[in-house]
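For the sake of transparency, this paper describes our internal protein records without simplification. An entry from our holdings is shown next, in its original layout:
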Amino acid sequence: MLNKQSFVTFASAGLLSLLAVSSVQAATTEQRQIQVLAGSCANCHGTDGRLAGAIPAIAGRPARVLEAQLLSFKRGEQPHATVMDRLAKGYTDAELAALAQYFATVDKK
């Protein structure tokens, strides 16, 4: 039988384990959601943003630069935008920031 101190220690360890698992699951779910959002970028920028050609590759570019460009498209500040101005309007600022961060971490190769 557990004494009160052992029970509290055991219960605390169990609670911390549950919180850690929940945190990992939340991070994994969030990463999957970002990958789903990034899938629409592949239509023009290629898988993982690595397409080379008339449409610029976005993989490995600095997150702050990508985010600024995405927000600029969303606000209609890019006069020569093709479809990016319309696409960016479909995302929240937080989603655009997450996409910028995602593509910044993708290897250029």
